[in-house]
Amino acid sequence: xxxxxxxxxxxxxxxxxxxxxxxxxxxxxxxxxxxxxxxxxxxxxxxxxxxxxxxxxxxxxxxxxxxxxxxxxxxxxxxxxxxxxxxxxxxxxxxxxxxxxxxxxxxxxxxxxxxxxxxxxxxxxxxxxxxxxxxxxxxxxxxxxxxxxxxxxxxxxxxxxxxxxxxxxxxxxxxxxxxxxxxxxxxxxxxxxxxxxxxxxxxxxxxxxxxxxxxxxxxx
Amino acid sequence: xxxxxxxxxxxxxxxxxxxxxxxxxxxxxxxxxxxxxxxxxxxxxxxxxxxxxxxxxxxxxxxxxxxxxxxxxxxxxxxxxxxxxxxxxxxxxxxxxxxxxxxxxxxxxxxxxxxxxxxxxxxxxxxxxxxxxxxxxxxxxxxxxxxxxxxxxxxxxxxxxxxxxxxxxxxxxxxxxxxxxxxxxxxxxxxxxxxxxxxxxxxxxxxxxxxxxxxxxxxx
DNA sequence: AAGTATTGTTAGATATATCTAACTTTTATA
DNA sequence: TATAAAAGTTAGATATATCTAACAATACTT
Lengths: 220, 220
Fold this sequence. Notes:
The structure is a homodimer of 220-residue chains. The first copy, chain A, is 41% helix and 17% strand.
């Protein structure tokens, strides 16, 4: 049986080892930072997770998943993202309010619940933030790699997919000359509201996080 | 902040003090039985709940709620029953599978979630088992008193309300001559599947628990 | 390559929530 | 009413998950 706490560690590890840089390992301090805990606490838990064969790790070495551990982490992420989708699509929450609630809901234990929820939501592939929802078989929807909103200042990327396909949004993109295949450079990122200053075809535009959330991109 | 565990104790206390006999107090052993814990553990927790002013109780005395404690218990029950309603009405769970999942969901902390869920479900007054869902102001829908399925062998009661109003169910009741106001005597209760042998207008019928769940009755 | 900074580990303390075993009080009954 | 049964309490142990403070190993930097 995996405790809520253990699941939190596995999810955090997942965030670290699934980073854009393709790292397959992480360290004690990084985990502690992500979980807002002290390294000593993390170290304790690492021993426990290793004993349960959920992670590979040796003293002073780096941390990585076992297959079993990754499977559990993927399920937690799946549940988190399905619940976020539920909160936004069905209950009418705004996308910025759902995280804390989904953090709680992701620990509800019931395979049947997860599958029924998935069905109820229409088997969504991406959550309201544009993150891919891992499937029950452990696979992940092929993602063009990232959403524009996850890019950092200086990144250059290509638009691969538009999430919101409403007429209003597509018309807006048209005005900025953004299409699938368009190259976008991130000139600046405003930390206050996560809006981005981008360059497209030599012209600068400011786009909101909401807009950037709806644009899937890959590095180029 | 109230822990999940504390909520479990308050909910169990609620079940004891809101029993049909109208008791307003309960004992250590009764709580321990209900929670499948040892009396010593309960005693420990009682001290804590008293210190938090959630219950009234003195050494060797009986246990009862403070207003604050009752309010929390009611909220937990409200959440439990709303989630059960969600699981059955929206996700298509059968009524007998939802309890364990609702036991987990009832601890999710978010006032906004509860109110949005209530709205999403259409402000239901009764859960799939026919139990009244406490309202956010702490009031409880007036209940005809009980569902037929909660009656015991020898009880005599009057049908006050039909929960499932589908044509199929109403036609079924018609065949048994059961209407609102009909007097029903419970001749026997089959523990295997909780079906009831009832007498209506001098005739004996066997009704399933599902049927009995859908008939609200009051003692006569 | 030496010294320093970063990273990671250990030991021991704390808080929660449980248990067992022994004990005390209250209640029921002979 | 004396005694036995039931109900309730206490003390001390265990497990989980956290912390602080001190220590050890690795990595960076000059």
